[in-house]
Amino acid sequence: MDSSTSVALEPVLSFLAFSLSKLESGFYRIPGSAVVARYVKSSHQNDPGRTILELILVIFAIRTLLQSRTRTDRSGKHFIKFSEKEIDELVDEWVPEPLAQPLSEWEQRDLSSVPVISGPNGPKPKLLATGKIVTNLASFNFAGLAGNEKVKERALETLQKYGLGSCGPPGFYGTIDVHLDLEREIAEFLGTEASILYSQGFSTISSVIPAFCKRGDIIVADRSVNFAIQKGILISRSTVRWFDHNDLKSLEDTLISVEKERKKRKGPLTRRFIITEGIFERDGEMVDLPKLVELKLKYKYRLILDESISFGTMGRTGRGLTELYNVPASQIDMLVGSVANGLCSAGGFCAGSSIVVDHQSCIKQRINGTSFVFSASMPALLATSGSEAITFLRNNPSVLLNLQDNIRAIRAVLEKTEGITLLGHRASPIIHFCLRTQQQSLAVTQPTYDYEAEERILQDIVDDSIANGVLLTRAKHLRGQEMVESRPTIRIAATAALSRKEVEKAAGVVKASVTRILSKRR
Amino acid sequence: MSRPSPKLLHLTVSVPADIKGRRRSGSIVKVEEVGGRTEELLDRSAYLNINANWVNAKGAWLIHVVLVFMGKIIIDTIPGMTQQISWTLVNLIYLNLSYLMFHWVTGIPFDNELHGGAYDDLTLWEQIDDGAQYTPSKKWLFTAPILLFLASTHYTNYNPWLFAINLTALIVLAIIPKLPQLHRQRVRFLTGDASGVSTPVTPSFPRMDQNPLHATNPADAHFG
C-alpha cells in the first residue's frame, strides 16, 4: 500500500519541488529581494507563532488599505442610485403637479367662511359681503383700544414724523427712539429691569426659547402650549419633558423625575427651564403663578412665562398675572408678552433682567434672539400706539373692570346653553366652548371624538351667528402639525369696548344659534 | 369615520423593540448607536467642521512619524533603559495618546456655537470626513500603529509577555475602535432603567430616555 501511494504521489511531489525551486530562483532575481529576505529572517527570530500573528496583522492592514471609500453619514441613507434607464423611465412618466393642490370641499368652505370687513376693525365692524354691522366677538380687542381716538391721533402724528417703515432689523439701523421708549415703558409697567421688543407677536416666543435653551438643556413644558412655543422648543433642540395640562402636581412629579434621572446618569448640571403660558390660548385656563414660582425656586429652574393673552387684560391695571397674583416680576426669568393682543398694536416683547434682555439682542458668535436680529423692527407708529395704550391702561383701570363684567355676562348666558361646555378659567378674556357629548362625565376610557364632524357643526354655528349679527370664529389649529390634537372649539374674545347690554344681547344671539343648529342636527 | 383620540404620542407611536411584556433587569452590556438623529445630521452639515479636517493635511500624517521618532529618542536617554522596555513604552504611549485623542474625547473644541452641539456625542474618529469609511486619512491612521508595532517587534526580541501586552494594546486600543462596524456605536455597561434593576417597568410606563417630541409626525414631516 505504502509503496503504491508513494509511487502515485511521486510525480506530484517532484512537480511541487521543481516549481518551488523555480519560484525561489525567480524571487532572488528580483532586485531588493535579498533585503526582504534578510528582513523576514531577522524578524522571524525562530518563532513561527509570532510570525504568523504578524503576518495576519499585515494581511489585515493590506486589506484595509485596499478597501474603497464608503459614503458619508449625511448623504448615505436616503440616496437611491438609479440606473440611466430607470432615470429615463421616470422622466418620461413624469406629469407635472400643480404648485398648490386644489382645495377639498371642506377647505374651500373654510376659506370662504372667513368674513371680510369693510372699513376699520373695531367692536362693531361692517361686513363687506352683506353690508351689515355685526358685533365683533372674534378679534382680540380686550381693553377696547381698537379705534381709540387718542391712539389714532398719536399714530398719525408719528406717521407724519417718521414715515411708515423702519427700514431694517433692530441691530442694523432699524432701532428708532420710539422703540426704545416703548421698551422702557413696558419694563417700567411690569416692574422688570429691561425689555426687548420683537416685531411679530407669534415669532416672539419662538425666538426667545431657542435664544436661551440649547441642545443638552432640559425644558419642562405644559402639554397644551400653543403652536409658537412648540416650534420654539423644536428649534432649540433641547430635551423636553411634558407635564399634564395645568396640573402643578404633575409638574412637580416631572421635576423630581428629571432630577433623579440626572443623578442616575451622573450628568453635569445643565440649564433647566419651565415653559408655560399665563392664560392658555388653546382653552383659556389660567396657571397658578405663586405655586409655580414656588416650585421653580425649590427645584432651581428658570421660568419662561408666555403672557400673550394675559398681558393687558389681567390684574388691576392690566400688568398681567404678576399683578393679579401680586408676584414680583423679577421672580419670572423671561416674561414674554404680546403687544399685538394686549395693547392692540403689533409685535411682542420679552421682559426680564438686563442680562436676559441683552443676551437676545447681541450676535456674538451665535445668533440669539433670531427674530430680533433678522426681522425688520416694527413701524414707528405701532410702537407709539403701544406706548399710548400703556398710558391708557394706567389711567383707565376701570376698563378692565368692564372687561371682567362682560366676561361674566357672556359666561352666564353661555353656561345656560344646552349642548355645549365652556372651557377655561372664569376670569379669562378668551372663552372657548366645545360641543358637549354624552361621554363627558364618563372618562373611563379615552373617548373618541369625530373632530371633522364637530368642526362642521361649529362652523354652522359660526355662520348662523354671523347671519344674525354676531361675529364669531372657531379656534383654528393646524391639524396634524401640533403635538396634542385638541377638540374643536369656538373662541369668543370678550372686549371692554361693548357695553354690558350689547354683550348680553350678542351672547343671547350665540345661544340661539347654538340651540338652533344643535336641534336641527338631532 | 371617527378620528382616534388625542394621542399622547410617546406612549403609542414608538414602542421600543426591546420591550416584550415585562422588562427584566437592565443589560450588563449594551451596544447603542449615538448621533444619528436627523436634526443632528442637519446641524452638522451647516458648516465645515474644522476640528476634523486637519487630519487630511499631509503634515498631520508626517507628525506621527516625527513624534514617535522623537519619543523614542527621548525615552532612550533615560538611564537603564533596555531596548525591550523602550520600544514597549513608545508603543504603549503612542497607542494610549492616540486612543485618547481619537476615540475617547467627544465634542468639538472650536466653533461649537456654529454646530449647536451636534457633535457632542461624536469622537474625532467619527467626525473625520463626515463619517465616511476607508478614506485616505483613516487608512493612514489605521496603518500607523500597525507599522509601529511591526517595527518594534523587528528591532527587539520581545519576551512573550511583552509581545502579548503590545499586541493586545494594539488590537484593543488601535484596531477595534477604528473598525467601521463600530462607527457611532457605544458599548455601555450596566445601564439602569428609570426604576432600576430591582423594580422592572411595565411597557406602559413612560420611558425616561425617550424624547416624545422627536417621535412626533410633525418633526418627521419637517425633516423628511
UniProtKB/TrEMBL annotation, chain A:
Q: Look up keyword Phosphoprotein and say if it applies.
A: no
Q: What is its EC number?
A: 2.3.1.50
**GO biological process entries:** ceramide biosynthetic process; sphingosine biosynthetic process
Question: What's the source species for this entry?
Answer: Suillus plorans
Q: What is this protein called?
A: serine C-palmitoyltransferase
Gene Ontology terms, cellular component aspect? Answer: endoplasmic reticulum; membrane
Which UniProt keywords are given for this protein, alphabetically ordered? Acyltransferase, Lipid metabolism, Pyridoxal phosphate, Sphingolipid metabolism, Transferase
Cofactor annotation: pyridoxal 5'-phosphate
TrEMBL record, chain B:
- Keyword terms, alphabetized: Membrane, Transmembrane, Transmembrane helix
Task: Give the transmembrane ranges.
Answer: 59-75, 87-105, 158-176
The name under which this protein is listed is ORMDL family-domain-containing protein
Q: What is its main location?
A: membrane
Provide the topology term for how it sits in the membrane: Multi-pass membrane protein
Q: Where is this region: Disordered?
A: 201-224
Q: Where in the cell?
A: Membrane
Give Gene Ontology CC terms: endoplasmic reticulum membrane
Q: Name one Pfam family in it.
A: ORMDL
